[in-house]
User: Fold this.
Amino acid sequence: MTLRDQPIRRKLMAIILMTSGAVLLLTCGAFIVSEWITFRHGLVQSLATLARITADNSSAALAFRNTENFLYAIRPTRRPWPFHRRWERTAISSLNPTWSCINR
Assistant:
């Protein structure tokens, strides 16, 4: 049957379904684009921060022509972020909780 032969109820349901599907696709597309832009911006900020830290750490070695310190400053690290320590809460008593840092 063609669309002309369909009852009005089925036509309305088809229109509502197509409209909802189009809105869902546009929303998903906008979300994906937004996440992509946010990811790239965060990546640029992280790389800029690492470049700034590397420049600050190696400027003295370059000024004094100390190659050992320069190579030490620019070496790649395993964990470049400060979150490599695992902080655990140890409560000696319920009134005096302490925080201890455990490197793992």
